Here is the input.
Amino acid sequence: MRYLPKSPADRTEMLEAIGVSSIEDLFETIPAEYRLTRDLDIPRQHSESEVLDRFRAFAGNIASGEFNQLVQQPASKPYASFLGAGAYRHYRPVIIDSLVQRGEFLTSYTPYQPEIAQGTLQAMFEFQTMICELTGMEIANASMYDGSTGAAEAVMMAVRVTGRNGAVVARTVHPEYREVLHTATQHQGIPATEVGYVAETGRVDLTALDAAITDDTACVLIQSPNFFGTIEDVATIAEIAHKKGALLIVSIAEAVSLGIVKAPVEADIVSLEAQSFGVAVGFGGPYCGVIACKEKFLRQMPGRLVGETKDKNGKRGFVLTLSTREQHIRREKATSNICTNQALVALMTTIFLTVYGKQGLRELAEQNLAKAAYLRSALVAAGATTKFDGAPRFHEFVLASTESAEQLNAKLLDKQIIGGLALAKWYPELGENATLWCATELTTKAQIDTAATAL
Here is the structure.
């Protein structure tokens, strides 16, 4: 068994149970001159990620035959990456793969027989509960394909709820999310009107938004933090939408932001990409999308939901409930004909959130915020400028360099650095030298300094 140290709260509870106030009280019978009053003279403890890095360095050096340099020098230097834009590199605790690879989870199929699938159903139920706590919504489903299809499903859900037929979409929503939305709605007669952003802040243009909402607008779709990394004024946008009878959908592509950014409680529907919660950046998937909403919209929610109940003996149990999917009812009555739940990937998210906890998630978000602030200051000091400085941001920002994005990234690649994402493809008005940069807790100070030097 692995040694898992108790938390301070656990220790306090144990001490109270045996009637002492501190750990020192346990050693009162030992004469003071024989008690150690200083820290042990040993190297500091290492985090799990540092231990893994150390072993990877050992393995690389052994493979290259450099046995005499096991500690001093890794055999190969990994590339530093400053890419984000909807797919984020975060540390994955090793316990995630240890648990999701258990046969009960890895090989199980849809839990239609609750009497033999209580573990899977409970994991889904816990997932839904955590998502509600994070987003400030009242109910959540047991996951979707990913954030992009989740956003599209949320728009179609709003159309069913309101009986209206149009959507207003902010241009600051991830461009590929908007492309998926177009694919999903183009043959359903659901027109989508795009509204721009304010040049100084990168936030939705509220005047244009107000003008774009009509009596036939079912919903307003925004993203916060948006594609530029800027945090939108959700409360004001909600007020504008609700005043005209439209629902507000908030798409969140970076779930870790919820550790420090206020939950979008003013929204009616939240579409979340949970990839950052323990899901590897794996060439585009599989990822973990979620829809959460107010309880009054429950029956129009796509996807799978797990409910809590009691068996005939009064014991707590879990079952699939309100399954308005195409598998269970007539296709024309289904809330969605393409959605599924990513139970195994959602389990990764559940384990991640359980391991980090409320305080851990906040500390993780603070690390991301601090790394991005240091990265921005280092690049600005190196001669670049940043856009949209008039609004708060999380861990991404738009950089304007003195040369084109292509030239800059080619120069950085020579230094084993993958630079920011070129934005001209989707936002030509920003110019050829605009790139989107991201820093997470896995970005090191040395990598940032190297990028700034190269710039």
